[in-house]
Each structure stands twice: as C-alpha cells, then as structure tokens.
Hints:
By secondary structure, the protein is α/β, with parallel strands linked by helices. It has helices spanning 38-54, 69-82, 91-95, 98-107, 121-130, 159-165, and strands spanning 13-19, 61-65, 85-89, 112-117, 141-146, 151-157. α1 crosses α2 (69-82) and α1 (38-54) crosses α6.
Amino acid sequence: MINQDRVVSDVSKKLILIRHADAYPLEDNQEALRDLTEEGIESISEIVPALLKLIRKPHKTVIISSDYLRATKTALLLASQCGFSYVGEHEFVRTGDFSELIKFVVGCKSNSIIVVGHQPFLTEWSELLTGCALPFKKVAAAGFKLDEEDCELLWFMQPKALRDLG
C-alpha cells in the first residue's frame, strides 16, 4: 500500500512495530515523562520469548523509540533482554511522521529494525504500509517485510498471543 518510490532498494528489510508498555496516568501535563508501571515492565519480559522466536537474528536487529520515557524504557528493556542494539530516540516516532520512518528504514544499515512507538501512529503506519489498520494494544507487535516493490504483513500479535507463543 505504500505509495513511495522504491521503498527499499536491492534488499528486503524487516520492520517490527511495537507499542510501548503500560505507563502511569498523566500528571501535571508531563506527557513526555510518564514512566512504565510495574505491570508494564513485567509485560515486556512476558513477550521476550515470543519475540526471540519471531526475530531470527536478534544480535543483528536495531531498535529505536519515541523520545517519550515510556517508549524509551520499553525499547531499552527489550534491547537488554533480547540482545537488540538500541540506537536511540527519534522524534518522528512520537509525532508519527511516516516519511521520516521510511527515510530511517531506507538509510538503516541493519536489515531488521524495531520501532517502539505510540497509538494512533502505529495503526496509521500499518495502514499506510499494507492497507490494513492494525489495532495495537500495549506491547502488541507487528512484523513487516519491505522491499523495493511492496510491503507485506508477516505477522501481528496482541500481548496475549505473544505470551502464549513464548
């Protein structure tokens, strides 16, 4: 469904979108500083076995996040528990800038990229990529294969399915 000129050249890439874990409610208009709850932290550990089954080369996988604390902490915990390389926070993940996402994917040296972000942008991006608007619950994940012609949805799992797979 992507209407970009040649999304990825010569090689296909795997893109995995993950919604951040559960965070504390908003207080004092500090949206950027909302931290993960204990349940949120636990939910990350619960999906790790499934992610390791779905991602064949975790040591060659990079992970980025929104610049909001809850997404950054989710990405850092996933990186440490799965062996992904955390390569930083990106404002475009928080703002939902699809063209910047595509630029990042195209320019990334790794062929396996995880993006930890927010709703509604993950649903919007999945629709722009494949025509399918996926309903991401917290710590839900979707895997896509991108090549120069097209984007294919490989899998989509809500948290319960990820826990069951693990």
